[in-house]
Amino acid sequence: MQRYMNICLELAMKGRGKTSPNPLVGCVVLDKNGDVISTGYHAKCGENHAERDALLKLNVGDAEGGTLYVNLEPCSHYGKTPPCTDLIIEHGLKTVVIGMRDSNPKVDGVKKLREAGIEVIEGVMEEECRKLNEVFIVNQKEHRTFVAIKTATTLDGKIATSNGSSKWITSENARNEVKIIREKYDAILTSSVTVNSDNPTMFHSKKVILDRNLTTDLSSKIYQQGEIYVFYDEKLTPKSDKSGVTFIKSPVKDGGLDIEFVLKELYNLGIMSVLVESGGRLNGAFLSFADKIYNFIAPKIVGDNSAKSSFDYREVFDINESEVFEVSEVVKFLPDILLILHKK
Ligand code: AOF
Ligand code: ZN
Fold this sequence. Notes:
Blueprint: H1 2-13, E1 26-30, E2 36-41, H2 50-55, E3 67-72, H3 84-90, E4 95-100, H4 109-115, E5 119-121, H5 126-132, H6 134-142, E6 146-153, E7 158-160, H7 172-183, E8 187-191, H8 192-198, E9 206-210, E10 227-233, E11 245-250, E12 252-253, E13 256-257, H9 259-268, E14 273-276, H10 280-287, E15 292-297, E16 308-309, E17 325-333, E18 336-343
Parallel strand pairs: 3-4, 4-5, 6-14, 6-15, 8-9, 8-14, 9-10, 10-11
Antiparallel strand pairs: 1-2, 1-3, 7-16, 12-13, 15-18, 17-18
Bound molecules: ligand AOF and zinc ion (ZN).
């Protein structure tokens, strides 16, 4: 069973970056002899679900008595597309194997399939399936934007020297992976400090800049590409504008823009996941909201206490007050490594 669920996960990944706010879903159909007769996946929000994509490639009857594998419980509601359960029932499948239940409250596909006499096997590779759709699960259950922080540090946790020199801590190998990670998120988010000091392009279709005092220059590289949302102190007024740039007023809290407000606005804008790429202060401000951290580590030591750290937002005297995370993955991008961590 794992074999086919693995194929579902691989197919699902083909939709990466294009399905939001919908989940990543892949599907494999076997006939009654156990031969794979069709596969499908959800390619884009608004388009066919994985099950429909796979079944529409067949004639009714081809899959009669067969088994359908899918990493997410089939939907049983009318959304942008009709219920997949109806099509599964119409095709006469005997068994449906699913990875995880759908956290969308409108969906109760398992019940509907069982009522139609179809055997449903649940929980196959559930952990992997949940990991693939971690953003969708947080969106559906908590009605909020999923937050990830990406940082690239030396062995001693530094992101720049004391005077801000930071190019390049990690290798090209690691930096290429960052581009792939960015694509998994609906938007990337950075601060005016990063824009003003590094003038990065941060190629992405949607970018968010927290610019409390409106100090960034609209001719900076970051503004030359993508759709941009600039959050600023509600007491100020932007002096210039540019097409593709939306200015959003924000209240101020604890000496910076109110992060809770920013995240709510992003959710209302349909930005379901955000990758924070900035300096120690902003990383610190987002830490209590972070679901996930990507920490690239270069095998280098700066060795200067006044060099800038990846998280720098408070004074701590008791080591037990440290924020604790759980390592979920360690990947080599030699000479660097990537640690993927989740909130404990
Ligand atoms: C997907 N792709 O392959 C599956 C989904 O508006 P709709 O009709 O596209 O419905 C979206 C919901 O359908 C989504 O929130 C999820 O609960 C369910 N399953 N969605 O986009 C799929 N199987
Ligand atoms: Zn569906």
